[in-house]
Amino acid sequence: MAVSEVDTRLLRHFVAVAQELHFGRAAARLFVAQQALSRDVARLERDLGVRLFDRTTRRVTLTPPGERLLVRATELLDLHDAMLAELRDTTRPLLVDVMHDRSTALRVLEAARPLAPDVELEARFHGGCDAAVRGLAAHRVDVVFGRLTGVRVAPPAGLTRRLVRLEPLGLMVLDDDPLARHDTIAMALLRGRTIDTSGGNPEAPEWTDLGAELVERHGGVVAPDHHPGMAAVAAAPPEETTHHLRTTGWPVLTKTDAAPIPGTVVRPLTEPTPLYPWWMAHRDTLRHPGVDALHRALDRLIPAEGWLDPPAGAWLPAADRALLHVEQ
Q1: Strand, coil or helix: what is 25?
Q2: What's CA 94's distance to the chain center, in Å?
Q3: Residue whose C-alpha is closest to residue 123's, from 98, 145, 87
Q4: Which Pfam family is one of those matched by this entry (predicted)?
Q5: Helix, coil or strand: residue 286
Q6: In the chain, what's the furthest Cα-to-Cα distance?
């Protein structure tokens, strides 16, 4: 079979395996069954008449023909995606994952809408950056926001990324908790206390990993992964969140823009001030007036709100410090 007749889906699956060098991880990245992925790779090898991978029970490696194909297949798929992006109707709605209500991302979206009044910008609420990136990889959303350094799924290749905000974090406590008497809560006051770092959403590893690193670094105890009620807290009404706090006695790590919940208060954390890094990401090939509006909104919001002006001595996770060159 001529190379021009190869199904682009097979090439896309080959590239995923070649980049991961692991069929299980590649299958998870593509949202397909591992057996189906293996069949697709075998079909491509039959169609091309060459072996693309050497496989053992412990490792997967590219053969010389596989290495050559990876270069060309990547180029071909990039060109294919760029062609489709240019041909797509840019009057369609732009799908933007804003994570949750009252988020930094939703503020950006709301600021962008007046800048493109003839364009429809639709919000999506996956509740976490990891889930949003999965949606981006599957073409279910166009733009995502959040802590990209902490996602477990491999982001699609060819992304435009922009740092949006370094948001200070706080602690949600019951209004009769001794910590509520403080205007701000020094990190030293968390020593020995159990802190709920899931925010009710254990499926957001970029958030839970940040919380665990922060709490453990400052002497606190991370709440168990699957304590009673955790999975339901994110979607629960406010009174259930209050009940959850009162039942467990665990303050909840949260962003400072969290919605007010009766019976609780949110106090900023200080000494040091922990930060959550917000990024905006979309495919390099995406051409849509809504994307331009988002970037123009950020051009206004970032300097006006001081979103990239962290306080002195602020704290960031190690992965983010390395990426942003921000001193602890």
Answers
A1: helix
A2: 18
A3: 98
A4: HTH_1
A5: coil
A6: 74
Structural domain contains residue 318? no
Map tokens 């992925």 to a residue.
37
**CATH number of the domain bearing residue 300:** 3.40.190.10
- Among the residue ranges 107-116, 120-129, 212-221, the one predicted with the least confidence is 120-129
Domains of the chain: total: 3
187 and 142 in one domain?
A: no
Query: Which two structure tokens, joined as six digits, stand for 324?
Result: 């942003």
Do 160 and 286 share a domain, yes or no? yes
Crossing angle of helices 64-87/8-20, nearest 10°? 120
Please indicate, yes or no, whether residues 65 and 140 belong to a single structural domain of this protein.
no
Shared domain for 186 and 120, answered yes or no, is no
Q: Measuring CA to CA, how many Å separate 164 from each of 79, 139, 251?
A: 29, 22, 27
Q: Token digits for 314? A: 């602020």
**Coil, strand or helix at 149:** helix
CATH number at residue 49: 1.10.10.10
Above 60 in pLDDT, residue 176?
yes
SS3 label, residue 170? strand
Q: Do both 190 and 258 map to the same domain?
A: yes
> Cα(28)–Cα(319) distance, rounded to whole angstroms?
23
Looking at this protein, which amino acid is placed at residue 174? L
Amino acid at 54: D
Check whether residue 159 and residue 172 sit in a common domain.
no
Span 261-285, mean pLDDT? 92
CA 51 → CA 32, 44, 56, 129, 239, distances in Å? 22, 9, 14, 37, 60
User: What's the domain range around 246?
Assistant: 166-270
Residue pLDDT, tens place only, 247-267: 888 999 998 877 778 888 999
In whole angstroms, what is the distance from residue 64 CA to residue 168 CA? Answer: 49
Q: With respect to residue 316, please indicate whether it lies within any of the assigned structural domains.
A: no
Whether the ω angle into residue 205 lies within 30 degrees of 0, i.e. cis, is no
Q: Do 47 and 114 have their domain in common?
A: no
pLDDT in tens, 56-88: 888 899 999 999 999 999 888 878 776 766 555
Query: What token pair was written down for 27?
Result: 């299958």
